[in-house]
Model the fold of this input.
Amino acid sequence: MNFMEKEKPIGVFDSGIGGLTVVKRVASTLPKENIIYFGDTARVPYGSKSNSTVIEYGLQDARFLINKNVKAIVVACNTVSSVALKEIRNNFNVPVIGVIEPGAKKAARETKNGRIGVIGTRATVSNRAYSSEIKKINSGLEVFEKECPLFVPLAEEGWISHKATFEIAEEYLKELRELKIDTLVLGCTHYPILADVIQQVIGSDVKLIDSGVASAEVVYNELDRIGLHTNKNSLGSQEFYVSDIPTKFKEVAELFLGREIQSVQKVDLELLSV
Amino acid sequence: MNFMEKEKPIGVFDSGIGGLTVVKRVASTLPKENIIYFGDTARVPYGSKSNSTVIEYGLQDARFLINKNVKAIVVACNTVSSVALKEIRNNFNVPVIGVIEPGAKKAARETKNGRIGVIGTRATVSNRAYSSEIKKINSGLEVFEKECPLFVPLAEEGWISHKATFEIAEEYLKELRELKIDTLVLGCTHYPILADVIQQVIGSDVKLIDSGVASAEVVYNELDRIGLHTNKNSLGSQEFYVSDIPTKFKEVAELFLGREIQSVQKVDLELLSV
Done:
């Protein structure tokens, strides 16, 4: 039975398409594993919704993956990770890995001067999710959070080296630069798309923390711990499900994933609510 | 009874806060009228949702206003205006005014060279809602639509004269400028916030059409036609309802409305579904 368990896929979900940057990281850390992705594109964004709604949606998203028979769930959504991780863990009997805890731990490990910056959406920053996670690890660390609302639409436009993107990054990051941070957490799954611009603007001496990379490492260790790494020796497959297919979806999704997507299946929201 | 009817408020709704630019226009065209606004901020954006969902939500939003005893409804949302106007008209016995038809009519009236540009969100542009409305009025007119996804978050950031905003406008509008349009419809209720930048970039010889202004004129004429202008001679009141109060809501709402908001009431979505 353990043999069968090992060959189950890893499930990854997000409120939209940002989580595809996490899929990219999980796939490069665990290239032989099969991955199933679900993006709740019909109900994105979660950040502006109430906690009870986010918990309800998060449980539905997780159940969809459980029904696909996954051996672990990666919650590639900062909002669900900060609000609903406990509920998902209580409801399902597989390892559930969020993006905030791994990102926070990695930042706490990497900083030399104890000054960590966190950038995210308005919702994530106003929750102070990373700050409280980092303070739990080491209350002596100083954390400075800054909301960068334009980074998500810039990433979705694919303006990864546009002059306007540099100017917007300049405006958002100048405060963090002045605060002499040496570590910067990309606290939104869209932001790795703009990593080059962010690195140039914040300065090459600041270490960027991609939560997706950190989460992928935790998934690796977790599969180690429970002995569920796949036995096969070929590249894993990937399946993509979304609750809606917006215009330009494929183009944007491929930018985020870093490779072509063969097919995307639309899931009926009604079925999720069961 | 007609006397009582006249003193009822005008209802305005939108999927979010963009419709506040329309409230501003209705209030300046009809300063003595009371206005009730509803913004479905918990379920914004509607543009990425299916038509049947948009119709369902639009009917709920309209019913909320009807329960507030309004004498007319302004659908200050491009998505609902293009998808659900007929259903709302069929269900409620008050004048229902959208933003697309008035904007399209005004553009068709204003153009001299028969070349009209329309800018909007990805959803509005991919529906070609303005094009088909303008073609219905005069099939000889040429309409060029361009999606400008970054304008909504730029408006919500309040970056109304930022260098980055000029550069983004330059990128989005250069094609329309080359197409020698003489009239440009602001096909999204957020865009009037950026009207100065848009005007400077597209050129002072291009006439901007603010759908909110056009809709307010139609409301005025409609109240004329049915004899329901208020009799009172003092400034009208305004009430604001939303389904969620996101961070920075008041600040952004006041920018859009162009004046201070005393209070905003949060409405339970559960009650809307009844």
About this structure: The radius of gyration of chain B is 18 Å.
